[in-house]
Design brief:
The chain has about 325 residues and is of the alpha/beta class. The protein has helices at about 10-25, 40-50, 70-75, 95, 100-120, 155-170, 195-205, 225-235, 255-270, 290-295, 305-320, and strands spanning about 1-5, 30-35, 60, 80-85, 125-130, 175-180, 185, 210, 220, 220-225, 245-250, 255, 275. The strands form 4 sheets. The chain has a 7-stranded parallel β-sheet, sandwiched between helices. It has a two-stranded parallel ribbon with strand order 7-10. About 45% of the residues are buried. The mean pLDDT is about 95.
C-alpha cells in the first residue's frame, strides 16, 4: 500500500481529486489534510469530507499547513510517494483587503510543504498555481511560456512566488515539481463564493445578484472533473529529466458571464434578477488558456460548457432538495 497526501481535501478541487484517486487506485491510501477555515460556508466543506470518509482508504487529519510541526508529524507517520498541495487561501478580491491569510497559507504554508517534501524524499510534488499569474494580459491564448510578472492581485503574487520557490527546489534540491495553473473550475460541490454558484442560487431563489462590469468579463471555465483528471494524469508522468514543469489546466475556450447567465436561465426556466456594479480592482478582463502543452503529454477531452453547467445545476437541486 502506498500513501499520497492531498492538502485542502475538503476544498472544491481537493475533494474531487481525492474521490477520483480513491475510485481509480485501490492500492493507494489518501491522507487528506484541511483546516476547514470559514472563508465560505463550512457546511459544504463538511459535506465533501463526509463523502470522502465513506472510503476505507481515506484518512483525514485536521490542521493547517502553516504549522510546521503538525506537518512534520504527519510526514513521519506516513511515507508519502506523492503530495498534492491544493490547500490555499482562495479569493482574488479578499486578498486586496486582508493579505495576512494569503501569506500564512499560500507562502509560508507552501514553503513548509515543499521543504518537508524535500527532506522526506517525496518523489513528486504537484501544487495549485493559478491562471491569475498571467495578470491582465492582452495577448491570448495564455501560454505557459508567457511573462507572469505583472500580477494585479496579492493572491496572484502568492501563486507566482510558489512557482519561483518550486523552481529553486527542483534544481537545487532535486525534487520533481509540477505547477498547475488552474483556470476557473466549476461543477458539483462548487464554491458558494464563485459566480456560477451565485447565479444558480439567485435564479432558483429569486434573489437579486450583483453583476460586475456588466458581465463582460471573459473566463476560461473548466469543468472540475476535467481539472482533476488532468492533475491525476500529470501525477503519473515520471520523466526523470523534467524536474520542474508548469501546465495550464484549461478548457481552451472562454465565454463571458452573460453567456453563462443565459444558459442557466434557459436550463432553469427563469430570469436572473440583477444589479450592476463597476469592475472590481484585481479582476482581470479575460482568461483564455492554451492547453496545447497539456494535451501533448496526456489524453483529455474537455466537457462542453452546456453539459457541465447542467451537471452543476442537477447537483445543486439535489443537494439543496429543490424542485423546479
Amino acid at each position: 500500500m502506498r500513501y499520497f497526501l492531498i492538502t485542502g481535501c475538503a476544498g472544491f478541487i481537493g475533494y474531487h481529486l481525492a474521490e477520483l484517486i480513491l475510485n481509480k487506485d485501490k492500492k493507494t491510501k489518501i491522507v487528506g489534510l484541511d483546516n476547514i477555515n470559514t472563508y465560505y460556508d463550512i457546511k459544504i466543506k463538511k459535506s465533501r469530507l463526509a463523502e470522502l470518509k465513506n472510503y476505507k482508504n481515506f484518512i483525514f487529519k485536521k490542521g493547517d499547513i502553516s504549522n510546521y510541526e503538525f506537518l512534520i508529524n504527519i510526514f513521519k507517520k506516513y511515507k508519502f510517494e506523492k503530495v498534492f498541495n491544493l490547500a490555499a487561501q482562495a479569493g482574488v478580491r479578499m486578498s486586496i483587503i486582508n493579505k495576512k491569510p494569503y501569506y500564512d497559507s499560500n507562502i509560508l504554508g507552501f514553503y513548509n510543504i515543499i521543504n518537508i517534501c524535500s527532506n522526506f524524499n517525496v518523489k513528486h510534488l504537484l501544487y495549485a498555481s493559478s491562471s491569475s499569474v498571467y495578470g491582465d494580459s492582452k495577448k491570448f491564448p495564455l501560454k505557459e511560456s508567457m511573462e507572469t510578472n505583472k500580477n494585479i492581485s496579492f493572491y496572484a503574487s502568492t501563486k507566482k512566488i510558489n512557482e519561483l520557490i518550486a523552481y529553486n527546489y527542483s534544481y537545487v534540491h532535486n525534487i520533481k515539481t509540477t505547477g498547475l495553473r488552474i483556470f476557473t473550475a466549476y461543477g458539483p460541490y462548487g464554491r458558494p463564493d464563485m459566480a456560477i454558484f451565485k447565479i444558480i442560487d439567485s435564479i432558483v431563489n429569486d434573489k437579486v445578484m450583483t453583476i460586475y462590469d456588466k458581465g463582460k468579463g471573459y473566463r476560461d471555465f473548466t469543468y472540475v472533473g476535467d481539472t482533476v483528471k488532468a492533475i491525476y494524469e500529470l501525477s503519473k508522468i515520471n520523466k526523470k529529466n523534467n524536474k520542474f514543469e508548469i501546465y495550464n489546466i484549461a478548457s481552451g475556450k472562454c465565454v463571458n458571464l452573460n453567456k453563462i447567465i443565459l444558459i442557466l436561465e434557459n436550463l432553469i426556466g427563469k430570469k436572473l434578477q440583477r444589479k450592476y456594479e463597476h469592475k472590481n480592482i484585481g479582476d482581470v478582463n479575460k482568461t483564455h488558456g492554451s492547453n496545447k502543452k497539456l494535451k501533448k503529454i496526456i489524453k483529455i477531452d474537455f466537457t462542453k460548457l452546456h453539459l457541465g453547467l447542467n451537471n452543476y445545476l442537477k447537483w445543486y437541486l439535489k443537494y439543496y432538495k429543490i424542485k423546479i
